[in-house]
Amino acid sequence: MAAQRIAVVGAGYVGLTTAACFARLGHRVVCTDIDEAKVAALSRAEVDAHEPGLAELVEQGVREGRLRFVPGIPVELSDVDFVFLAVPTPTGKDGAADLSAVEDVLTRTRDLLPPGCVVVIKSTVPVGTTARARRLLGRSDLAVVANPEFLREGHAVEDFLHPQRVVIGSEDEASAQRVRSLYDGTGAPVVVTGSASAELVKYASNCFLAMKLSYVNTLSELCERVDADIDDVTEGMGLDDRIGSAFLAPGPGWGGSCLPKDTRALLSTSDAMRVDFPLLRATIDTNTRQVRRVVDKVRAAVGGTLAGARIGVLGLTFKAGTDDLRDSPAMTVAHLLTRAGAELTAYDPCVPPDRYSGPMRVVDAAHLVAKGARAIVVLTEWPEFAELDWARMAEEVWQPVIVDTRDLLPAKKVQAAGFRLIVTGKPG
Ligand code: UGA
Q1: What SS3 class is residue 111?
Q2: 26 and 107 belong to one structural domain
């Protein structure tokens, strides 16, 4: 298709990826954000998000003149074919999504947008928001379309350019087709549906993933009790392609900026609609319990009392491949351990000591967490932890015990170094 003029409001990882990738696909993109310092940095093609390939795309877009960054709600919006909303929708009152940023953008752009412009909602919004946005704009010459994103942090560019699906929700077929054509270059299957269904696809997907993980985390607890191995169980399950092998790795609990927020928001929608959703409630409760279970394991590993126990922590981000600490189960475990009186020394390749202020000691090399430790806890699956010199670590610790919540470490090597290894979902 011919190059379109696209505005993206919000330069978080979703908005910035959307802007940079549409520029890559040949469109002319202006990306806006209220954070003026961020806009200034992005205009110099300086990207601080930890997203492989994103900085290169931004640099290319800026250099080739297809991508610009401007602060606030700029007049440039009066000259665009599409405006994508990619502003945050954090958890608000009672677990529901807080839509104030979305509403604010709609109110401020209402009189600016040119006739025929399509407003595309990329932010994760509860069912009914696209219809409400249409009413809020109050202009029959504008279309509003839902187009949820499914990007994973750490894979955002790859997921945008090679998506498993594109979902477009609209009550107006022509506008849906215009949005669809923006994704022509990706070759992805496209689901065109009503806006309520599209909005729900997003929540339904994230909540299903969370449910899968809570299921597997509980199953791993059962494995430990009955002398079974969770890896073998999930391998056997995953070969059934109705189940699938992805998202079956146990861990310290699921976290991040999306799954926790979206599970709470869907539960809040269900409650408001008087639909009892015990499965979703249990999914969330199980995750809270999973974090506590890790703390209990560490307590048992250090001999029953955490007060005064030195503990080494490997990994703080909510998963590997990102620098994001939001709703990180690793941070929650660390917090609970500290609250119980443990003295923590932590290392994460994406969390330099000066980024953290609090009761933990954050160090800048992984081996430093071992010194005097009664236990080492692996909370994030950074591959480099598997490569550590475990024999050297064993010489530094007070007691050679490791709680590996991600089943990341090479068991034989670590045990040969003298460690007792406690792995989630494994016998013994
Ligand atoms: C998630 C979804 O996967 C994306 O499709 C969605 O677009 C995104 O939320 C969003 O709504 O923006 P993300 O937050 O990047 O992406 O995180 P995931 O990769 O889904 O991981 C979520 C949590 O599950 C992490 O804490 C991770 O460690 C945990 N996890 C994942 C496991 O414990 N085991 C697994 O097998 C997989």
Answers
A1: coil
A2: yes
